[in-house]
Amino acid sequence: MNHALIKGVEVDPSRARSATQYVFLVCGLGISSWAPMVPYAKERLGLNDADLGLLLLFLGAGAITMMPITGIMTTRYGSRSVILSSTFIMALSLPMLLLMTSPILMGLMLFVFGAAVGTIDVAMNAHGVQVQNIFTKPIMSSLHGLFSVGGLLGSLGLGFFIKLGLEPIVAAIGISFLLLFIVCRQYANLLSGSSEIKLREINSSANIHEQGRFSWLKGSVLFLGIMCFIVFLSEGAMLDWSAVFLREIRGVSPEFAGSGYAAFSIAMAIMRLIGDRIVVRLDGKRVVVGGSLLAAFGLFLVVFVPWISGTLVGFVLLGLGAANIVPVFFSEGGKIRGLSPTVTIPAITTMGYAGQLAGPAILGFIAYGFSLPIAFAFIGGMLLLVALSYGFRNLGQGTSS
Fold it and tell me: What pTM does this model have?
C-alpha cells in the first residue's frame, strides 16, 4: 500500500479515502433514518401538519447553527475527532427522537440531532477535500454518492426492520450501534489533526487563525455559496414538493406519489458513484454547466409534459444533472488560494444548506401566489442561471483562483 509522507507525517491515501467514504455513508444513513420516524412522532405528540412543519425547523436550525462553528472545531481538533464526537451525539439522539413526550422536548432533541448532522456534514466534506488534495484527482463525487446510498438505505432500512416486527425504538437503537461501529472501525484511517495541519501548511501560506475573519466576504467563497444555495434549493424542492406535484397536478394515486423523489434519488446516487470519472474526463466546468442545463431541462420537462412518464423522466434528468455539481463546488472551495478547506467548506456548506431549508418555503409562497408548476419552472430558471454564471465566470480562468 502506497503512503504519502507529508512533512514527517505518514498518510495512507487509499485507506483515508475508504474511511471517508464510510463516514459519508454513515451521515446519509443517520439523517435518513429519521424520515420513517416522522409519522410516529406526529402521532405520539398529536401534531397537525402546521405544528409538525414548525417542529421540523429545529432540525435545520441545529445544523445551520453548528456548520460555521465546525470550521473552528476542525481547525483546532482535527476533522476525525469532530467526526467521531458528532457521530456519538447523532447515534445517541436518534433513538431519543422516539421517546420525547412533549413538543418542547422534541424540538430540543431535534435541534441536538440536527446540530450533530450539520457538524459531521461539514467535517467530512473538509476531510474529503483534504484527502482529494493528497490524491490530486477528483474523489468528491463518489463520496457524495455514498451519502446518497446511505440516504436510500436509511429511509428504507428502518422501515424494513419495523415491517419485520421490531419495535421502532429497537430498530433505531440498532441503527445507532451500526453508525458507531462503522466510524469507530474507520477512525484510525482518517487523517489525524497533525497530518491535517501539515496539509494546510503545504496548501496555504496564510495564517489559519486569520483566515476565518474575512472568509465569508471573499468573492470566490460567496459565489460558490450562492451557487450551492440554488442547487440545494432544487434538491430540497424534490424532497418536499415532488410527491405533492405528482398527486395534485398529475393525479397520481397516494401510494405512488413518492415515485418522483425515488427516481430522482436513484439517478443522483448512480451518477455520483461514477461522477469522479466524469469530472476527470470532462473537467469541473463542463460538469457544472452541462449538469445545470440538463437539470433545468428535466424540470421544464416535469412542468410542460402532461404525461406521468414524461414527468418521471424529468425527475431522473434532474437527478442526473444535479448529482455532481455540488461536489465540484466543494472541490473548488478546497482549492481557493490563501484559505484552508476547514474555513471555506463550512462557509459554502452553510450557504448551501440554507437553500435546502429555505427552498420548500420559497416554493410554497410561489405555488400559493401562482401555481406549483410555475414554482418548479422558477427553479429551472435558477439552474439556468447557475450554468450561465459559472460558465462565464470560469471562461479563461483556473478553478483555484
Answer: 0.76
